[in-house]
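To make this tangible, this section ends with a sequence with its structure tokens:
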Amino acid sequence: AILPAMPPDLSTICVEFGLDAADVERAGRIQEAYIAQEAHEAVLAQGSAQSERECARMAECWRDATHGQQLKLYHGTSWEAAEQIRRDGRLRVSTDGCLGRGVYVARRDKALRFAQASGRHGGDAGGLVEVVVSFSYPKFVAGDDDEWQMQGYDACRTASTSLSDSMEWCIQDPSQLAVVGIEKVALQSAAGEESLAPVLRLPRGGAAAPA
């Protein structure tokens, strides 16, 4: 069996998912040895059923730990686009990112920088969209990757890309993101100012209300 892709920055993933650091690091070491063709052939040649069982057990633990997880993340855009997202209740798919087609989200600080950069979205004000992301089978990489969906994953997290040193996620389908609220922010030229409007929360009924 092929083990799921493990994150290159395990300590950060442990914080994000609330995983036990020792178990995840151990799973990573086992996976690295297992997926290497030479090591795999060696295991089979030795007939080590214990090694095979251990690999399968750790793979199952990893899937259980990440299956059905939800993370609170953010999407930076223009205020106009953020308002449209609030009205529609969903984010649009991007096709030109370093992780291929999907919906791009990140931690608040990175999304805020994007929202404040008028040159990135062309708006008169920035919009910060807070979302809750759900996924069942995430892939973790360090760098660009546009093949994860063809490999059966429904989300991809990268520690950095060729265009950014910051972490970001790409989510396969907009239905995996629930919009929690939007916030209007000043552009970079006035980034030191306070937000230009209150945060808007979306209750279960769908109508926006101030937090």
In short: The chain has a mean pLDDT of 77. Residues 49-66 form the longest helix (18 residues). Residues 69-203 form a domain with the Phosphoenolpyruvate Carboxykinase; domain 3 fold (CATH 3.90.228.10).
